[in-house]
Amino acid sequence: MSRPGERPPIRRPAGAYIHGTDGPIMAAPARLAAWLEKNTNLNVQRVALRGLNPEIDDELVALHWLATWAVTASGTADGSEAGTATRLLPEPAGELVAEHINVNTAAELIGMSTRAVRKAIAEQRLPASRNGGQWLIDRTDAQHYRRNRAA
Questions:
Q1: Which domain holds residue 71?
Q2: pLDDT (tens digit per residue) in 29-56
Q3: Which residues have CB under 8 Å from 43's CB, separation 6+?
C-alpha cells in the first residue's frame, strides 16, 4: 500500500532487464545505479579504474549519470516499500554532478594545446562527448588525464 501521491515500486522479472541482439546487455534502472553508488563505493571505483578499459569507463559513467539522476529526480528511488523509502545519497555535491568543460578550458587545465586535447579525444585517451559541434569533457576526466600525464 502506498501513501497518497506515491507510486509503489514496480517489480519486474530479471529477464525484463536483459536486451540486445549482439549479445546480452542489461538496462539498469536509475534506482539500481544509485543503490550501487551508495552501497558499493561504485563512484570511487569508477574514478580509480578510469582509463583501464574505455568501454567499461563509458558504462561506469552511464551508471554514475543514472545514479545522479535518481537522486536529483526523487531522492527516494531505491525501490523501498511505500512509507519506508530512505534517501539514497546526500544532496548532489560538486563531485556527484558532472561539470563539463569545453576543449579550451580542458587545454588550460591540462596544460596542453587545444589541438593536443582534440587528438587525445580522437585517440580515446580523454573521454568526451559531442554536444552540437562542441566537445564536452568532464572536469574530473581532464584532471585525471593531467595527473596521468605528470606521472
A1: 27-76
A2: 888 888 888 888 787 788 778 778 888 8
A3: 37, 64, 67, 95, 96
Rounded Cα distance between 117 and 105, Å, is 10
Cell of 52: 583501464
Q: Where are the alpha helices (DSSP H) in 41-84?
A: 42-48, 54-73
pLDDT by residue (tens digit) across 66-110? 777 776 665 444 433 334 444 444 444 444 455 889 999 999 999
From the list 126, 90, 131, the residue with the least C-alpha distance to 109 is 126
Dihedral of alpha carbons 85, 91, 30, 64, sign: negative
In degrees to the nearest 10, what's the CA dihedral of 135, 19, 72, 78?
A: -150
Same domain, yes or no: 113 and 147: yes
Which CATH number is 124's domain given? 1.10.1660.10
Picking from 150, 142, 147, 148, the residue whose alpha carbon sits closest to that of residue 105 is 142
In a domain, 116, yes or no: yes
Residue pLDDT, tens place only, 65-75: 777 777 666 54
Same domain, 113 and 148: yes
CA distance 89 to 96: 10
